[in-house]
Amino acid sequence: MRVAIVGATGAVGHELLKVLETSTLQFDELLLYASPRSAGSTLPFRGQDLTVQVTPDGAIDADVILASAGGSISKEKAPAWVAGGALVIDNSSAFRYDPEVPLVVPEVNGEAALGHKGIIANPNCTTAIAVVAVAPIHRAYGVRRMIVSTYQATSGAGAKGMDELLSETHKVLHGQEAGAEVFAHPIPFNVIPHIDAFQDNGYTKEEMKVAWETRKIIGDESLKISCTAVRIPTLRTHSEAITLELEKPATPEEVRALLAQAAGVEVRDTPAEKLYPMPLTASGKYDVEVGRIRQSLVFDGGIELFVAGDQLLKGAALNAVQIAEYLQQKGALKAKAQV
Questions:
Q1: Catalytic residue check, 125
Q2: Are 130 and 210 in contact (CB under 8 A)?
Q3: Where are the alpha helices (DSSP H) in the chain?
Q4: Is the N end or the C end of the chain the one with fewer CB atoms within 10 Å?
Q5: Is 238 an annotated catalytic residue?
Q6: Which residues of the chain fall below pLDDT 50?
């Protein structure tokens, strides 16, 4: 079994390496690919230094390809990878809205991965974090409407985004004026209600992704969703305030008990002890922290909650590896030599 990472030197690529270090996924060889400027560099993995190769134009001799090099690369090259016999688990937005491509969060709709035709899409990081918490509630009580306000870390813009936060904050702390290249405005000591391009309806594409993808993953096109996506000056972990109108009324105690049993969730909800989800505590965790669970003051029987999940892990690298693990556990992932 050969696994390949395309985009190995990026922020998500580094996290994929870390996740694979301790993953239950059984494989014999790991191949690393990136752009020509990274070719020849090495990255450590399980006591070895693996050499990064240039991403080829044609097929890659691997059984599973974890692609995290951006939508344009995936769109251009993934068909050749699939034609060469590889399963592509893609972290970009290239295939998420293709009805022929499963969009998968294993804790929610892992079975959808079994119907793949060579490509499985990883959702947007904000969506992945939200649905881990919302899907169990939807199954138990039904969600009619979902209002989301996000607090998204600079890691959502990759390594360059995190670098800009650090470098521009350093300038401000030393009496200089902060600039902006990655973000629309300077990010230090600021919040920017603008992530991705604005659409004709006044929402940004990031905000619409949450609506489109949540409905596809949960499997309910009737679900009404509104999102406001905001970039904040933290390094990693996205947080979200979520309001839910439910089909059947639920109490905070019922929802808390439900989520305590939900896969991929850590209930962190003791406000009297100042215990609630935060980037400070959720960063580096596989589970999504959920707390501030309370009765809605707007929707009768509705629920409000706050979630925090590591954008580079559950929002990207971890989810991709979990998809491969799920398929292997189901006996649906085999080396080409065994087929």
A1: yes
A2: yes
A3: 11-22, 71-83, 106-109, 125-141, 158-173, 205-218, 252-260, 279-282, 318-329
A4: C
A5: yes
A6: none
Catalytic residue among 14, 116, 125, 227: 125
Closest Cα partner for 284 from 315, 307, 262?
Answer: 315
What amino acid occupies position 204?
A: T
CB 92 within 8 A of CB 74: yes
Which of 3, 212, 219 minimizes the C-alpha distance to 115? 219
Q: Are 246 and 301 in contact (CB under 8 A)?
A: yes
Contacts within 8 Å (CB) and 24+ apart, 191-198: 191/151, 191/230, 191/231, 191/232, 191/233, 192/230, 192/231, 193/228, 193/229, 193/230, 194/231, 195/150, 195/152, 195/156, 195/229, 195/230, 195/231, 196/229
Q: What is the model's pLDDT at position 142?
A: 98
Cα 262 to the center of its chain, rounded Å: 18
Residue 334: the pLDDT is 80
Considering the entire predicted model, what is its pTM?
Answer: 0.94
E-assigned strand segments in the chain = 2-6, 29-34, 42-45, 48-54, 64-67, 87-90, 119-121, 143-151, 224-228, 238-246, 265-267, 288-295, 303-309
Residue pair 318/311 in contact by the 8 Å Cβ criterion: no
CA distances from residue 313 to 13, 118, 180 in whole angstroms, order as listed? 11, 23, 26
Q: How far is CA 287 from CA 107, 260, 266, in A?
A: 11, 12, 6
In the set 14, 116, 138, 238, the catalytic residue is 238
The angle at the Cα of 300, spanning 109 to 140, to the nearest 5 degrees, equals 25
Burial (0-12, 13-18, 19+ Cβ within 10 Å), 8: buried
Q: Which pair of structure tokens corresponds to residue 330?
A: 């189901």
